[in-house]
Amino acid sequence: MASNEETLPEDFLQGPAPALTRSDVDWAKGIPEYEGLWAVILDGVLTQKECDMLVAAAESRTGGTWERAMVNIGGGRQAMYEDVRNCGRIIWDNRDYVGRLWARIEDSVPEIYRLQNQPDITGNGPVKRRETWRMTRLNERMRFLRYKGGEYFRPHCDGTYETPDRRERSYFTLHLYLSDMAGKEGEEPLLGGATTFHSLSMTRDLDVKPKAGRVLLFQHRSLLHSGEDVEKGTKLTMRTDIMYALEN
């Protein structure tokens, strides 16, 4: 099988986003108690063609096989809990391509380059220690996710990932949507599949709909969310993390 680098042109994802626009998630429209928590939507980061090429390259690494996604249970361990998470997954580590993705969007989110005195994002420990955390990169681990009819990810909050040397940790999630609600020509439209934020009481919701080339960024802490059940069609996304190091 050809390597993943050979399935994509050398200039893949080079250059600026094709039509980038930013909109901050408006918590007042759904979950007012989340006001002040950070979540941003960037549209036009990739074209539909680039999304298709990225999915094809990921699939080429596994011969088109999608493993069943597992759930992190702490200590670097995972377990299969399909009552919590039920979808297909391909894992692909590539610093080059996530670096190119970040280059397209970094100028749109300058407020998260450095984190200081922000307990809602970092927790109280770094604030008490007067630490400043500086953004370093996107996690090279791209987790491609495929949700088909009846599949879902139940409500949860994302956890911080720390590198084995403990020099970097994540504070934000990045979701790249790789398919549209309408579906491609000849395919069934997507019904369901939103990324849904929930109030802690589970009485109020706010949906972010899949759109090819859209990036959703949000802080790990305090944002309860789920992958809504896909009733029809297929939802494709890629998830990774924004990494930080302690500033000297």
Summarize the structure.
The protein is built from four helices and 19 strands. The protein has 248 residues and is mainly beta. Helices cover 13% and strands 37% of the residues.
Question: Could you explain the architecture of this structure?
Answer:
The chain is mostly beta strands and 248 residues long. The chain has one domain (21-70, 86-234): q2cbj1_9rhob like domain (Jelly Rolls). 13% of the residues lie in helices and 37% in strands. Strands 1, 2, 3, 7, 8, 9, 10, 12, 16 and 19 form a ten-stranded antiparallel sheet that branches. A five-stranded antiparallel sheet has the order 6-11-17-14-15, with no helix packed on it. A two-stranded antiparallel ribbon has the order 4-5. A hairpin with a 6-residue loop joins strand 14 (195-198) and strand 15 (205-208). The longest helix has 13 residues, at 48-60. The chain starts with 20 loop residues before the first strand and ends with a strand.
